[in-house]
Protein 1
Amino acid sequence: MARTTSRSKTERPAENRTGEQAPNAVWFKPVMFGFMLLGLIWIIVFYVSNNTLPIPGIGAGNILIGFGIMFVGFLMTTRWR
């Protein structure tokens, strides 16, 4: 006896990963960790050089720059998937 109905898999619509659901680009994680490490190195160089490096003219402003660079990296962690 022949079957009149065909048995096929029910096709689900393909998941479109756009916007919030899309995974990060390959470069995202290295850049994120790079910012955090660069800020840390900036602050370490400032303390090790007795407040003369990386930018000698701004003095303690180097700490703000270092923390600012690290903050950019930490802000990027909120978008990491």
Protein 2
Amino acid sequence: MKAYLIVTLTVHDEAMFAEYRKKVGDTAKPFGGQFLAAGGKATVLEGQWEHSGTVIVEFPSRESAERWYESAAYQKIIGLRLESTSGSLVILDGI
């Protein structure tokens, strides 16, 4: 079953986050990660949307998404995201 990594974020350091963006795609590819949406315009129809940025990455399975998150390649760059943004990151099972 496919799984989706969903990130909502607000960028506080554009230069550091740009460095993260350059590297993150290559870390997801070996785990089948495919970026479906990243930073496009979002229209809030109901409720509150706390952060201005949203990223959705599709993985072949929850296990693939978890292995990517825990991988040495991703752990090497995760600090760039954590230090340059605030937000949330979740894995959602597909249907």
